[in-house]
Structure formats: structure tokens, C-alpha cells
Amino acid sequence: MYQAVSAGIPQENIFDFMKIASDAALGGVTDLETAVNGITSVVNAYGAGVIDAATASDIMFTAVRLGKTDFEQLSKSLFQVIPTAASLGISFEDVAANLAALTAQGTPTSVATTQLRAAFVEAAKSGTKLDGALRTLTGKSFPELIAGGKTSSEIFVALRESMPEQNFRDLFSSVEASNAVLGITNKTALNIIDSFGGLEGTFGASTKAADTMSVSLNSLADASAEVLKIQFIESFGKDIESGVDSWINLKLAVTNYLSTDLRLRNQLKVSSAALEKQGL
Q1: Alpha carbons 88 and 126: distance in angstroms, whole number
Q2: What pTM value is reported for the model?
Q3: How far apart are alpha carbons 129 and 179 in whole angstroms?
Q4: CA–CA separation, 95 vs 50, rounded Å?
Q5: In angstroms, rounded to a whole number, what is the distance separating the alpha carbons of residues 249 and 133?
Q6: Residue 29 above 50 pLDDT?
Q7: What are the pLDDT digits (tens) for 161-184?
């Protein structure tokens, strides 16, 4: 909770935020602090009036589902691209869709965010080859196209299709920028970006992930309890079956506890206790 307050979450919203972050931590199999840091990085960069915590978390989980990354990697890497994207008016959904596409093709999350930032910076810089090519093709700069409702991938795809491949590659002054744009304008990437589904397609992704993880943990606990019960009865005889309920419950609790990350469960326990004190 302290991390959320220090990250700028208003006190009147803190308990709603912690519910969202707890779902993100559980669904993303990470600790609460990491979930808080990732979500607040997005909300603080764009502003709470542009994107709320629930939407940020849902978009992150959609990127996890479509890409080859996880919630923890995203949370720890977004700082490299989010401030630049937000300053240019590039939506978080746009950024996340690109990251899903890049990571799905094997680019590590931390590398993908660095590459994407380089592409955004170069595209927005006036006087570069890339800027000149965009103005020649569209009569507008990259920021103007973004402000007009185009996504970054749409802009780069149109430019790539307008000229010979080598000419397109020669527009970039850095390998990072070039790799990012080539990685989000190929057929594989575009299929992923197109399937991102818009904001409506991301709704509830955090809750679904948390529910799935809860079911998995409950199933694991149930299975562990049955195995323990069978082993106990086989060792000591069926005549004591009725007397082992309390022992089984204890073993079940221990098994369930040890089956997941200790730090995650401790964080969630603290968060749940705080919420209960507030009657939530």
C-alpha cells in the first residue's frame, strides 16, 4: 500500500487501486510491489484522466496473452518507453500491441521497449530522413499523424509499403529503431496487433487472469490433499480415516502455501487484511 501512495495514487482511491493491483499480482504470478510499480508507471505517465489503473492492467495482460512476456517483465521494462510514448500522444494500447508483436517474435521485453522508444524518438525528430519520408508521403509529421488518430504501426506500414525495401531500411539512423519498426510491420506482427482487439477487447483481462490462477491453485491444493490422505491411510490403515481431518487440513494449508511464491502470498495477505479493516 505504501508503494501505491508514494507513486501518487490518491488516498481516496487507494483501496480500489489495491484490489486491482492484487488481481494483477495474483494473475501475473508476481508480487504486489511489482504489480503496483507497473500499473502506476502507466497511469502516472499518461495521467489518470487518460487511463485508469484497471484499463492499464487489462491492457498489460492482453499483451502478455498475445506476446511472449509476462506481467513482471512488462512492469520492470515499461519505464523505458512509456514516458516517450505518452509525450507523443501514442496510446498505451498502441505501445502494448507493439510490445506483444515484438516479444512474440523472440525479442526480450527489455530490448523491445528500448527499441520501440528509439523508433518513436527518431520518427518524431524533425529533419531526419524518416521525418522527411513521412512528410513526403503524407504531408504531415509523425506526431501530427498520431494526433490525427493513426497508430504507430499503421504509419510505419504505410511508409514501408510506399518504397523499395532497402530504401525503407536506409531511413533509420539506429539499429534499435530499425529493428523495432521492421518487427512491427511484418505479417506476423500485424496479425498480433490486429487481434489486440481495441480497448473493448482488453476489458476484464486482469480479473480473468486472477480467476484462472485461483482455480489452478485450488485444484493443486485439492489434488495435494487427496494424495496426502491416500498416503496417510495406506500407511496407518483405514480404521483411522475419520480421525485425520484436522491433520489433512493442516497439510493442505501447508501444501497450498508452499505451492506458490512466498513473497506473493505474503503481499496479498497484507493487502487483504488492509481491505478487510476498511470493510471492503
Answers
A1: 13
A2: 0.67
A3: 16
A4: 15
A5: 68
A6: no
A7: 999 999 999 999 999 999 999 999
Q: Which grid coordinates are listed for 74? A: 512488462
- Span between the terminal Cα atoms of the chain, in Å: 15
Of residues 180, 161, 173, 165, the one with CA closest to residue 125: 173
Instruction: State the residue for C-alpha cell 509476462.
Output: 70
Cα–Cα distance measured from residue 82 to residue 246, given in angstroms and rounded to the nearest whole number: 51
Chain-centroid distance, C-alpha 223:
30
User: Is residue 126 a contact partner of residue 190, using CB atoms and an 8 Å limit?
Assistant: no
Which residues are CB-neighbours of 263 under 8 A, at least 6 positions away? 31
Residue 193 identity? I
pLDDT of residue 20: 55
Residue listed under C-alpha cell 505474503: 266
Q: Among candidates 233, 251, 252, which has minimal Cα distance to 242?
A: 233
Res 161: pLDDT: 97
Predicted confidence (pLDDT) at residue 217 exceeds the cutoff of 50 = no
Instruction: Answer yes or no: are the C-beta atoms of 249 and 257 closer than 8 Å.
Output: no
Q: Given the C-alpha cell 506482427, which residue does it identify? A: 189
Give the up-direction half-sphere exposure of residue 204: CA atoms within 13 A in the CB hemisphere.
Answer: 5
What is the number of residues in the chain?
280
- Strand, coil or helix: what is 218? helix
Q: Measuring CA to CA, how many Å separate 230 from each of 190, 224, 234?
A: 52, 10, 6
* Helix 14-27 and helix 262-277, axial crossing angle in degrees, nearest 10: 150
Do 129 and 137 form a contact (C-beta atoms < 8 A)? no
State the maximum Cα–Cα separation within the chain, in Å, rounded to a whole number.
Answer: 86
- Give me the amino acid identity at 149: G
How many angstroms separate the CA atoms of 220 and 252, rounded? 10
